[in-house]
Amino acid sequence: MATARAAHAVAATAEAIYVMGGTGADGQPVAEIERFDGKRWASDTTLPGEGLNAPAAAAIGGSIYLIGGFGTTTNRPVSAVHAYDTKTRRWSEVAPLPAPRGGHAAAAVGGRIHVLGGGNSVSTLADHTVYDPGTNTWIERAKLPRSMGSVAAVVFEGKLWSVGGRSGPSDFGDVYAYDAAADAWTPGVPIPARGTGGAAAIGGSLYYFGGESQAKSSVLGDVLRLDPRVTAWTAAAPLPTPRNFARAVVFNGRVYVIGGSTGYGRSHASVGSRTVESFRP
Question: Most buried pick, 32, 59, 157, 269, via CB within 10 A?
């Protein structure tokens, strides 16, 4: 990328990948929003308002929704949600989150955006909040079985999955699958405890990339793979560059792991990286 980033948000439309928010090479907020069309990166727009640390983003059609986060000038969680029309390159403000939060994850399922976990100024959250752009409303659905921030959210085999996470100094290897029809979470095959990694589903498998282990005081380069109907994750080819905040997105048949920090232990002023690495199973 042109600009280094960590604690940022990534989303992909059919035409491009968009990278939003986060902190740069100096740990300061990044206002620039970059767009990758499969060949090159370019500046597309800037964030509305102050910078954001650890927001979440999800795409529905040609719109990208930038959700919550911690204000990088105040370090306070925000509830604001902004929609970016990638065709007109204009921002609009939509219904805010029911309560401020940052460090959460988001994924689009069936035309709605599910927001998982995160934290506010007081505690880590188990909240599972769903946005319907058709009605511009939020509803609460079944909470995560555990309060966690820095989870990875991904759609796999028609269900929403939550992988990894943390609360304070504790990392978790929890994996859960959400059935929207039953409004219920089911435990899946756990991973070794870690948070701030990225997840993507491609080629019939679920992958988890990088992250950070607080127990080991280290940034991770592991890539873990889960195939349907197996009872353990297996190791895939590791990331060439170990990173936390390893944001992963599928675009044009490949997984792109975009930005992140190569340094351990700085959540609100992480030194970002320009590194982008892609993977095809």
Answer: 59
Question: Mean pLDDT for the chain?
Answer: 95
Query: Which residue range is the domain that position 241 belongs to?
Result: 9-279
219-246 pLDDT tens trace: 999 999 999 888 899 999 999 999 999 9
Classify residue 154: in a domain, yes or no: yes
Rounded Cα distance between 250 and 277, Å, is 12
pLDDT band at 33 (very low <50, low <70, confident <90, very high): very high
Count how many domains the chain has.
1
Q: What is the CATH number of the domain that holds 146?
A: 2.120.10.80
In a domain, 3, yes or no: no
1 located within any domain: no
